[in-house]
Amino acid sequence: MTTWNVQGSKPTDLDRVVEALGANDPDVVLLQEVRRPQATAVAERLDMDHEWTFKHHACFPLFGSKAEGAAILTPHSLYGRGSQVISSTRWRRWWRRRIAQWGVVRRADHSAYRIINVHLSPHDLHTERLEESDQIVAIAERLGQAPPLIVGGDLNDHGDPEQLDRLPGTEYVSSPPTNPAEAPVNVLDHVLLPDDALDVELTVPDGGDHWDGVSDHLPVTVSFSMKWVTGDYASG
After folding, report:
1. Where are the beta strands (DSSP E) in the chain?
2. Helix ranges, the chain (H)
3. Consecutive 10-residue averages of pLDDT for the chain (236 residues)
């Protein structure tokens, strides 16, 4: 699984985004700060199904293709899709509006897992991040315990342990700095796995000037195995 804030409002080189994502052949890709046409193009290039969700747009409802959002991409079946505003700010034109996006990914062998894709409030908005995390916990409880839950995205936590502890799931391998991509110093991007995940490995590419024109974040890829839940479970 790969999570990546692609900073799609900038001149993002989609060829290089696709190249970076395809290098790890992920089962799931979580994108933040991505526009609908960008998510669609990346999904088509990678031969993946996808779901894009609106977050905000300063000119809403005009120029809809410029709206910022979140996306889940997968080469497998994607269903049980949903989203919810998790910030106190609900105005669709303001960047401080925050959402959680989710779906169930089911593979051909009928193993499945539920994904929640998030991008929490940035900078010094610590209280807001914790409140948004509580909203994510409530969403996870409402969706149910099966299939297993994975939470990923840009948490804007700067390595704050309270933030990670607040969310469902476990970060087995600590994420390194991923921002700015040219010379990373900020720990922001994470994947939190079920408590019974096995063989967990985390990969983040080296930063450097070659990321200029791609994103100000580095992608985080986590590989793992599980004793998958199969059969009957809520599709939420």
Report:
1. 2-5, 29-34, 49-56, 68-74, 77-85, 99-106, 112-119, 149-154, 189-192, 198-203, 220-225
2. 14-22, 36-45, 126-143, 161-166
3. 92 92 94 97 97 93 90 97 96 95 93 96 95 98 92 96 94 97 97 95 96 94 81 43
* Dist. CA 38–CA 66, nearest whole Å: 10
* H or E, element range at 24: none
Q: What is the CA radius of gyration of the chain?
A: 16
3-state helix, strand and coil shares in percent for the chain, rounded to the nearest 5: 20, 35, 45
For residue 203, the tally of other CB atoms under 10 A from its CB is: 13
Q: Cβ(182)–Cβ(213) under 8 Å?
A: no
Q: Residue 9: how many CB atoms within 10 A of its CB?
A: 16
Please give the C-alpha separations between residue 153 and each of 63, 64, 116, 132, 232, in angstroms, as whole numbers.
Answer: 26, 23, 8, 13, 28
- Domains located in the chain, CATH noted: 2-225 (3.60.10.10)
